[in-house]
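ok trying again, last paste got cut off:
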Amino acid sequence: MRHSLQGAVQRAPFFLAASLLVSTSFIPANAVSTPNDSASYTHTVSERSDDSASAVAPLSDDVLNADPQASVVAGQEGENPGAIPEGDPRVITYWTTERMENAIPADNVEDPQQEINNAVSQMETEEQNPEVVSQEETNESGEEYTPQTLTQEADEPETTAESVDPVLPEQKNARNGVQLQGASKVTNFSHTNGKIFYTDASDGKNYVCSGAAINTPTKRTVVTAGHCVHGGKNKTWHRNIVFVPGYNRGVRPHGTFSAQYLRVANDWVQYGQPTGGTGDSYKHDVAFIKTNTNEKGQLLVNMVGGHGLNVDRSPIFESTVFAYPGNKESGTVMHACWGNTHTIRITPYYFPTLSGCEFAGGSSGGPWLADYNNVTGLGKVQSVTSFATNNNTSVSGAIFDRPVWDIYQKAAKD
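nice, full thing came through this time. structure:
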């Protein structure tokens, strides 16, 4: 199932197609959520228990929860049954290699319309050659393009930027990526990045997104797109969520990390839509996942490192994007795309955009890194892939501003 985006204003200089970037294929686990603050909804994943309101549905190929909406407690404090330290092993068992491989990209929906402002950006951007490479081979034949730039609102309020530094793996001998020969900017495909697999409770199908480990005191946190953990307006939380860092053609070099606690922006829960939508729907299409340890009891960031974080920065920056696009090698290999971003306007917001990547389904949630270091394979996450435009030739990301910082601060303490 591919999601699409529609702008709020129909009159515009020109229009481009847009779609959220997920990939598909099946089943669920139940839980309890609590919208416990104004910025985000939370969701705790727990095992079945006689004294708890939450449960994990039996892992079968044809049974959905009787009431998939029951896990969302809206507008009030919900029961929090607590988390199981090592998670439910059935979630790990469910995700066989075959199921992961069968989580394939879906077809595009009909082209929606979106407002694109054709003004010239006040920040200079040069005509550039978009770079896209994969973990296993380098593609140096990118076509030239002229980035479409936009003018920021003149009366935007002043903000205070926040930043978190990345962190290397704890184990000195841990390999944090695959070093390839060549002169490309990205030759270190850091295992800090990986794939997120989940089951959509609405249709019982399996989907795949991209995501990345991010530095927090707990060493357990993943950042991704909001629609990779929650279905949006009038929908519920996804099930069977796991993160596989460094996934490569079915290989899980660091094991599988199941979700223990989820945080997603209220904007996505209240306004997010699988088709259509406005700027409010996608402005904060971002989520943070607290993971359980892997099968060996190891913490995520200790094993693969964690990216840092930037918020309240310009949407125009030199970005390196990692993802598992389903239109490239069936989404089985990590790809990277880099260049200077520009912006597109979806009323009333300006979204960071990178042209020339051609990332389709499966790319959602992939990190947009500022200050990328090819030696360590780490950078600072300044956005995550949310939707694509112009037949996937451009990708756009969520806006990382103060509300995202507030959600991160809470996720860091989960």
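cool. The mean pLDDT is 72. The longest strand covers residues 378-389.
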